[in-house]
Amino acid sequence: MRIEIEAGVRLFVDVQGPGLLPDGPRMRELPTLICMHGGPGFDHAAFKPGFAALADVAQVIFYDHRGHGRSDPRPPEEWNLDTWADDVVRLCDALGLVKPIVLGQSFGGFVAQRYLARHPAHAGKVILSSTSHHMGLERKLAAFERRGGAHARALAEDFWLRPSMQTWHAYWDGVRSLYNTRPPLDPDAGARTLIKPEILLHFVAGEKQQMQLLPGLASAQCPVLVMCGDQDPVCPPEDAQEIADALPAGLGELVTFAGVGHGAWRDDPDAAYAVLRRFITQPL
């Protein structure tokens, strides 16, 4: 379904599981988990079907960021972190959601970090998964070289410094297999993703180059779980450590998964979903 979050702006939204469950003589309310996908330029498909595993502990809401996937097309001046972060609040207002658990994966984690900075009292909890707080190019290049040698480093350097359709296709074809440490459980998952490379290239060539999200994390007012794989080349574990260190004392928790790449549930789903279930269900 498409939900209007402001005049003329509709986001594609999908829901997994009920918000209320029969529990003896009463209805028990489940927390709401809002899942923000990676990219930019991708859609929510990568969360499916795996995140259905969490529908017994939370009502899971997937959506495509403004301009992405099946959401309404929007002009490039709206392709920025401030707008995407504010859309979390707009979407919650439209759906009547209070104190959601907001999960940002990769680029979705950039959005979640900006959301924490701009709306620090809005979320009940936040999950920052396989994400970074800056470009961190040298760190990325070193990680790609460790995973795939000099050729992988060169492809990554060419794309991140000179983003174009040509360098993007060479990069994605050449290093996508290095993002993770095991073959995909669902080999058709990538084909189901709707990609709008114009949004990706706009962001990488622009806002991504000077992105600095650490200062805003000091504003956080809710528990924040930071998840990373120790073999992630594009959002290296050093970035996750710095994100966790920047959070207010007592609010941040860092979980690092050994032998895991980008998106812990892709390489170690049992461990990743166990951590997510525990964080979702733990009392505030």
What does it look like?
There is one protein chain. This protein has 284 residues and is α/β, with parallel strands linked by helices. 38% of the residues lie in helices and 19% in strands. The protein has one domain: 3-Layer(aba) Sandwich (Rossmann fold). The chain has helices at residues 81-95, 107-118, 137-161, 165-175, 189-192, 197-205, 214-217, 237-246, 264-267, 269-281; strands at 2-6, 9-16, 20-23, 26-29, 32-36, 59-63, 101-105, 125-129, 224-229, 252-257. It has an eight-stranded mixed β-sheet, with helices on both faces. It has a two-stranded antiparallel sheet with strand order 3-4. Strand 9, helix 8 and strand 10 (252-257) form a beta-alpha-beta unit. The protein starts with a strand and ends with a helix.
